[in-house]
Amino acid sequence: MNIYTIAIIVILVGLFLFSVVASFIRWNANRITVWFALKKLEIDKPILDYTRLILDENGLIDVEVKKVGFFASLFIGNTYRKKTKTIRLAWGTARRPSVTTLAKACELVGLAKLDSEGTKGLNSVLFTKYFGWLPILFLPLVIIGIIIDLISTSQLGIISIVFSAVGLLLTLIPFIVSLVSLKIERKALNYGKEIIYNMGILNEEEEKRINKLFIAWRKLYVVNTILNAFELIYFFLRLVFSLIGRK
User: Fold this and answer.
1) What are 69-87's pLDDT values in tens digits?
2) What does DSSP assign to residue 87?
3) Which DSSP string corresponds to 43-71?
């Protein structure tokens, strides 16, 4: 057993163990998100209107708020678009005043506030949301490259190497972007928490729930970024191992 095989085994074991921890953190974050989504706030406006109010109170009068349709809500969800200075709220978020929906709205206001301060890298949040799935293309690309090589030359060659390299690149880019996105999202969460507390519309118990929710989301963002790093290392070692194995 050579060093590359050992390295891959170590990475696989580490990835498995971390995946177990990551799965628990994700499950807990989703559980808290869903549970607090059921906790209706005693406020007299839908979140769409409150988002507009929060923006105005923070001097962000040039930022627009829109409610997206049902199908757009399923595939896009809640986003802040820097180019158009628009907060887009999912259908369910915009209408229901719950702990979760208010927290999400304030996080998006936090992104708008960071934009107004000239913070760089805001587009990384959208990129991660839309293209964070790209690493799953690594294995299909490797398989396609191998099939093309075997059909055309009856042995593995340049095509499989090129397709593997492309797959690795599609893993590397989202990882690099996710590092920037993590920093931005954590700042937005901190702003969102500060905004909510300054509004003074929540009672003590609701503030505790908001704080617990933000902590869960921060952990989730960190876990997702670390997991991307593990996947990148694993894919890289697989590529190196396959190249060495053919020598």
Assistant:
1) 877 777 778 899 999 999 9
2) E
3) -SS-HHHHHHHHHHHTT-TT-EEEE--HH
Angle between helices 99-116 and 47-57 (to 10 degrees): 30
CA pair distance 193, 110, nearest whole angstrom: 9
pLDDT of residue 145 exceeding 70, the answer is yes
Residue 95: CB atoms within 10 Å: 14
pTM: 0.77
The amino acid present at 69, given as its one-letter code, is G
Amino acid at 109: V
Distance CA 228, CA 222 (A): 10
Structure tokens at 238: 């697989």
Burial (CB < 10 A; 0-12, 13-18, 19+), residue 242, is middle
Instruction: Dihedral sign for Cα 147, 138, 131, 176, please.
Output: negative
Q: Which residue's entry shows tokens 């809640």? A: 78
Q: What angle do CA 52, 54, 59 make, to 5 degrees?
A: 95
Q: Containing H/E element for 151?
A: helix 138-153
Number of H helices, E strands in the chain: 9, 3
Quick check: 70 and 94 in contact, CB under 8 A? no
Backbone angles phi, psi at 5, to 5 degrees: -65, -45
Distance of CA 110 to the CA centre of its chain: 16
* Positive/negative CA dihedral, 171, 89, 83, 184: negative
The CA-CA-CA angle for residues 238, 243, 245, to 5°, reads 90
What length is written for the chain?
247
**Interatomic CA distance for residues 202 and 99, integer angstroms:** 9
Residue 122, pLDDT > 60, answer yes
